[in-house]
Amino acid sequence: MADYLVRAIGAGGNVRAFAAVTTALVDEARRRHDTWPTATAALGRALTATALLGAMLKDPNESVTLRVAGDGPLQGIICDADEQGQVRGYVNQPHVDLDRTPQGKLNVGGAVGSGMLHVTRQLALQGIYTGSAELVSGEIGEDLAYYLTRSEQTPSAVGLGVRVDTDGSVVAAGGYLLQLLPATPDADRDRLEENLVKLGSVSLAVERGMTPEEILAAVLEGIEYQVLERRDLHFACRCSRERALGAIALLDDADLSALVEEDHGAELTCHFCNEVYRFTEEEIRAVRKGMETQQ
């Protein structure tokens, strides 16, 4: 099943709901960054959370960035998504695999540690807005729910999950996000809480084959709702060879000379997708010549 999310509205417009399956996306990130199991789970949850936040974007030029700044061994996670469903991200220390929790789960909270969660939205009409909140558990789903409730004054519930196979590959990944407006009836709030308990692990639901529509149906059972959108999701990076060469062009003449005379070329690696761009001496010389021409 291809990765995608669905967006819905229910309870007379008082409940906004999103659900996504992100298995291929997360496994692509695992492959590119060579993450170990605990790091895979943490990065996968952050990627899924960012994809769900991205579903709130309306303009093709808008984007959202999620930064998990924890003091655990992962040393932080950064992900971003755009309105087109393109998601990318990385963890600073990919080779982290802690002992499992007493419940037998991957210890994402321990790997993330304490710190802050930052959400930056680049919006077409309102510019750039960044909000922050303390990490409450390091589990990312709980942290995002706390951020949305506290910093954006929108009571929210977030479920994120990643199941990793014995060979390290991603078996299932996905998540949901619910937002309740102030006028949501108490009966609907209670029903939603019961539904979330009944659904349980979202990664297990995805592993059983549940689609985003079926996850939403389970979460919103007993509440009238309407699906507004389906959006494909995929791991994609905006880096390119041209952009990498443009970054080299920003270096001063002394650094460019060192690349030619000492390194005999240059190699740049994109943090977000781990793509490596290599440039020859001749290409660096051409950059220098172009700079001299402009002066």
TrEMBL record:
InterPro entries: Heat_shock_Hsp33 (IPR000397), Heat_shock_Hsp33_C (IPR016154), Heat_shock_Hsp33_N (IPR016153). Keywords: Chaperone, Cytoplasm, Disulfide bond, Redox-active center, Zinc. It is found in: Cytoplasm. Disulfide bonds join 237-239, 270-273. SUPFAM superfamilies: Hsp33 domain (SSF64397), HSP33 redox switch-like (SSF118352). Under oxidizing conditions two disulfide bonds are formed involving the reactive cysteines. Under reducing conditions zinc is bound to the reactive cysteines and the protein is inactive. It comes from the Bacteria. Transmembrane segments: none annotated. Pfam families: HSP33. Redox regulated molecular chaperone. Protects both thermally unfolding and oxidatively damaged proteins from irreversible aggregation. Plays an important role in the bacterial defense system toward oxidative stress. Belongs to the HSP33 family. This is 33 kDa chaperonin.
